[in-house]
Structure formats: C-alpha cells, structure tokens
Amino acid sequence: MSTNVIMLGPPGAGKGTQGERFAMGHRIPRISTGDILRDEIHSGSTLGLAAKTVMDRGELVSDPVMIGIVTERLSRPDVANGFVLDGFPRTVAQAQALDGLMDGRDPLIVLDIVVPEAELARRLGSRMICEACGHNADGRETTPGVCHFCGGKLTQRPDDNAAIVLERFKVYTKATKPLVDFYRTRPTFRSINGAQSLDRVAADLNAAVEDISNGAGMASGGGKR
C-alpha cells in the first residue's frame, strides 16, 4: 500500500519542513510545487517568468498551470510507493483535479497543519531559505546564515516581506481555506496543531498517518466524494 499525503496549511505553517521530514522518513518523494516553480524562475523559462510576476504579487499561479505541473510529476515512477504533496492543491478546482489523478491509486491522506495567525506572521518575518539548494532553514543550522545541507547562504524569501505576507494571508483565506471544508468529512483527514515544537508536530503527523492507515479510512477509499 502506498502512502499518499497532502500537507495543507497557511503560509508559515511548516508544511515544507514537516513534509521534507515525513518524506525522508518514509522514503517517498516530497513534491513541492513551490520548489518546482522557483526552479523554473531560476532557469529563466517562459513558465518561470510568468510565475515570478504572479508570485511576486503574493498571488496564486493559475489552476491549469499548477494542475499540469502536478499531473506530469505524478506520472513519474518514483511515486509508486507514495508521495508528499506540499503546495498543491491550493484551490477546490485543483483538489477536484487531484481526485481524478488519484483514480486507481491508494487514497489521499490529508493533513491540515493549524497555526494561529499571529504566530504565522512572526515565523514568516524570520523565515530563511538557502540560495543554493532551496532548503528551508529549520533550526538545525550550526552556523548562522549557512545552510546545514549544502553550506549555501541563507536569505529571506522574496515573497516573505511584510506587504506580500499580508496579501498571501488574504489569498489563503479566500482561495485555499475552502479546501479544509472540501476534505474535512473524509475519514483520511486530520487537523494537526502546528504551534508546537518541530519534533512534536512531526510525531503528531506520523501518529495521524498511522492511525488512518490502520483504520477504516483507507479501507473505505478515503471518503472521496
């Protein structure tokens, strides 16, 4: 049985850090649509240039573009044993498209990381990312300002300045929060308290996945509508 996980939550909730840890622990790929888009921006591709304009305003890249990116990524053989999706879906339309992509696969496990808005704002204001490998700083750095994975320089993400953070909260509330309502009734949905230590959140995520995998949710097809 494969482990197919979606990480939901607002900007700064810790989806990237927790998704990375979970994926490494379960030896499945973490698929970050944000990382894919930033790679495209770095390469100067047509997709990257178009995405940069939208992301720099704190807005979401269009549904067709995001669905296309994920459709291609989920077609690769390395997802046979499962995956962790971070940054997708972000709209109900994307979630509906993902349901279609999951036909013939094991059910989706949906984990919603919940953090108070004041804590999110504090986190985003101090969040750092490696310029070289794109790794999110997670407190394990032994040298200030230096990525513990590759030794690259840590810098603030361009979409984490104050004005863009506020816009991203608005976008999340309007477009992404309805996803919780879309998934909430499924037996494979769980809410996780993200206002805890990294290790405590990771433990709760693992416990939730184990509970779902051992319970009726998986047997019933994940409660897909």
List keywords for this structure.
two-stranded antiparallel sheet; 7 strands; alpha/beta; 5-stranded parallel sheet; single chain; 225 residues; 10 helices; Rossmann fold
Summarize, please:
By secondary structure, the protein is an alpha/beta fold.
Could you explain how this protein is built, in words?
The chain has 225 residues and is α/β, with parallel strands linked by helices. The chain has a domain at 3-115 and 176-212: 3-Layer(aba) Sandwich (Rossmann fold), CATH 3.40.50. The protein is 47% helix and 14% strand. It is built from ten helices and seven strands. The chain has helices spanning 15-26, 33-43, 46-55, 63-73, 92-101, 117-126, 162-176, 178-183, 198-214, 216-219, and strands at 3-8, 30-32, 82-86, 108-114, 128-130, 154-156, 189-193. The strands form two sheets. Strands 2-3-1-4-7 form a five-stranded parallel sheet. The protein has a two-stranded antiparallel ribbon with strand order 5-6. The chain is globular, with a radius of gyration of 17 Å. The model has no long low-confidence stretch (mean pLDDT 84).
Q: Please state the oligomeric state of the protein chains shown.
A: single chain
Main sheet: strands, sense, barrel? 5 strands, parallel
Q: In total, how many beta strands? A: 7
As a percent range, the share of helical residues equals 40-55%
Based on CA inertia axes, which overall geometry fits? globular
The CATH topology of the domain at 3-115 and 176-212 is what? Rossmann fold
Strand content: 5-15%
Instruction: List segments where confidence is low: pLDDT < 50 over at least 5 consecutive residues.
Output: none
H/E element sequence: EHEHHHEHEHEEHHEHH
Radius of gyration from CA coordinates: 17 Å
Structure class: alpha/beta
Which strand order do you get reading across the main beta sheet? Answer: 2-3-1-4-7
> Going by CATH, what is the homologous superfamily of the domain at 3-115 and 176-212?
P-loop containing nucleotide triphosphate hydrolases
Mean pLDDT: 84
Q: Which architecture of the domain at 3-115 and 176-212 does the CATH hierarchy give at level 2?
A: 3-Layer(aba) Sandwich
Number of H- or I-type helical stretches: 10
Q: For the record, what CATH class of the domain at 3-115 and 176-212 applies? A: Alpha Beta
Q: Compute the separation of the termini in Å.
A: 21 Å
